[in-house]
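BUG: 3D viewer hangs when loading the predicted structure for this chain

Environment: internal workstation, default settings.
Expected: structure renders.
Actual: progress bar stalls at 90%.

Input used:
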Amino acid sequence: TAACSHKGGVVKLVDGDLRCPNHGARFDVSGKVTKGPASEALEHLGISVNGQGHVIVDTGKRFGESKWEDPAAWVKVAK
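Structure tokens produced before the viewer hung:
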């Protein structure tokens, strides 16, 4: 998600990392905290690929960092 885990501000991509403009928290592109005040990673949303090859994001499914390996939390992308 783009919601900062500290106070819910919308993070923005700046110079290769995600930054919350409200309080300065930073995250790497995977969502892990690289600078506080946030102490928890960004949540990942449910994601899948349908039969037509379209990526489907399920905003009703949320995964904290300990659940990022759940098959519903990621899709393999061809290079």
